[in-house]
Amino acid sequence: MAGKKTMKCLQCGHLTTAKKRNRYHFTECGLRNIYLNGISEFGCARCGEIEVVIPNIDQLQGLIAREVALLEARLKPEEIRFLRVHLGFSGADFARKISVEPETVSRWENGKSEMKLTFERFLRLMILSNAGPFREYDRMELFGSTDEKGRPRRNFTVRADHWGPGAA
Questions:
Q1: What kind and span of H or E run contains 20?
Q2: In the sheet where 50-53 sits, what is the strand order?
Q3: Distance between CA 128 and CA 131 in Å, rounded?
Q4: Do residue 25 and residue 62 come from a single domain?
Q5: Which residues have CB under 8 Å from 132's CB, separation 6+?
Q6: b/e burial code for range 56-81 (CB count within 10 A of at least 16 → b)
Q7: Residue 30 has what pLDDT?
Q8: 80 and 26, same structural domain?
Q9: Scanning 9, 11, 129, 159, which has its CA 20 to 30 A from the CA of 45?
């Protein structure tokens, strides 16, 4: 169908209308500083429900995981949790894989203790070795601005269902 894209509202079944979203704060991934550009948002005129469609979510999650693993700063608790979940491990499974107690993983992810540098490097290596080919690009394009705590604000844009770094 040419023209506007539509889909049925998941709440009431009424037809919704799509519009491009310039910037979407993607908190659902578990990280506070991820923003997506160029995705579609479907709004329902009947019930007010808004659905955001994120294409190729696996590729996007891989891109985010790679970017987190490549950060020069030590990993924050939310980043440790994100990377573990991205690898498909429960807290207990991850603890077994790296020979620590599950409570240790929980403390790292809750900010109660700092992950030892050797474990952090291993976690980063697990991500980077699973990530597939890494594409170099201008990091300033991706990390051009920061959030309120000075952490890089990462922006990602979808183009033809393929995710890449996006302008800030």
A1: strand 15-21
A2: 6-8, 15-21, 39-43, 50-53
A3: 5
A4: no
A5: 62
A6: eeeebbbbbbbbbbeeeeebbbbbbb
A7: 94
A8: no
A9: 159
Domain count, the chain: 2
pLDDT at residue number 131: 47
Strands 145-146 vs 152-159: parallel, antiparallel or unpaired? antiparallel
**Partners of 20 in the beta sheet?**
40
Nearest residue to 57 (alpha-carbon basis) of 25, 16, 83, 28:
28
Q: Specify if 125 maps to a domain.
A: yes
What does the alpha-carbon distance between residue 152 and residue 142 come to, in Å, rounded to a whole number?
9
**Does residue 68 sit in the same domain as residue 124?**
yes
Task: Tell me the two tokens of residue 26.
Answer: 């993607």
Q: Residue 103's domain is classified under what CATH number?
A: 1.10.260
Residues 48 and 64 in one domain: no
Question: Across-strand partners of 165?
Answer: 156
What does pTM read for this prediction? 0.72
Complete DSSP assignment for 54-67: -SSHHHHHHHHHHH
Taking only the tens of pLDDT, the chain with its 168 residues reads 445 577 888 888 889 888 888 889 999 999 999 999 989 888 888 888 888 889 999 899 999 999 999 999 999 999 999 999 999 899 999 999 999 999 999 999 999 999 999 999 999 999 998 644 333 333 333 334 556 666 667 788 888 888 887 765
